[in-house]
Amino acid sequence: MKKLFLLSIVVLSSCKEDDATPSAPINDNFNPSTATLLKSGSLTGIGHTVSGTVALYDTGSEKIILLDPFSSQNGPDLKVYLSKDQNASSYISLGVLKSTSGKQSYEIPGDPDITDYNYVMVWCEQFTVVFGRAEVKL
Amino acid sequence: MRSLVLLFFLFLCITVATAQQNLSISNSIDLGIGIGSSQATLSSAYIHNWNLGKKQKIQIGLGGRLTGYLGANQYYTTAPAKLTSGKTGPGVFFTENIEANIDTFLIAKPQTFAINAMINLGYKVTQKITLGFNIDAIGFSFGGAKRGNYINGSQGQNLTSKPTSFNLLLVSDNDLGSLNSEFYGKYQLTEKLALKAGFQFLFTEYTTDLEVQQFPDPNDRFRNKSSMFTAGVSFNLN
Question: Which residues of A touch B35 (CB under 8 A)?
Answer without folding.
Answer: 8, 12
